[in-house]
Amino acid sequence: MNARASLAFQEHTMHDPSGQLERRARRRAGMKLGWYIHAAVYVLVNCFLAMVSAASGGHWAVFPALGWGLGLAIHGVVVFIAAGGGGLQDRLVERERRKLRASEEPW
């Protein structure tokens, strides 16, 4: 661990000795990474299916793309909106966290 990461971790543990915040952050980052992997596989597989469909003279690849696309969209809503992974909520939570920490300080 480099010095900057070590300092950030020490500062983080002062405010969150139980590590709950770290666990939540890792879980949310894992959820986002899972969606990005899902999206990459979606693009690769559907490009392959489109090539096979075009080579066979059909246009059937649109159906799996639409069905899977719906699943990918729902996955994105769950990860980025419903589970609180959106940037807006992160900023609002961080703002409230700063206010609460400032109100706890004696000066």
Any chance you could write out the topology, listing elements then pairs?
Layout lengths: L2 H13 L4 H36 L6 H21 L4 H18 L3
Helix pairs in contact: 2-3
What would you note in describing this structure?
- The protein is mainly alpha-helical and 107 residues long.
- The protein contains 4 helices and no strands.
- The protein has helices at residues 3-15, 20-55, 62-82, 87-104.
- The chain is rod-shaped, with a radius of gyration of 21 Å.
- The relative contact order is 0.08.
List keywords for this structure.
4 helices; mainly alpha
Short account of what is shown:
The protein has 107 residues and is mainly alpha-helical. It has helices at 3-15, 20-55, 62-82, 87-104.
User: Cα distance, first to last residue?
Assistant: 34 Å
Oligomer: single chain
Number of helices: 4
Shape: rod-shaped
Tell me the structural class: mainly alpha
What percent of the residues sit in helical stretches (DSSP H or I)? over 70%
Beta-strand percentage range: under 5%
| pLDDT averaged over residues | 81
**Could you tell me the number of beta strands?**
0
Uncertain spans: none
Report Rg: 21 Å
What are the secondary-structure elements, in order, as H or E?
Answer: HHHH
Instruction: Tell me the major beta sheet.
Output: none
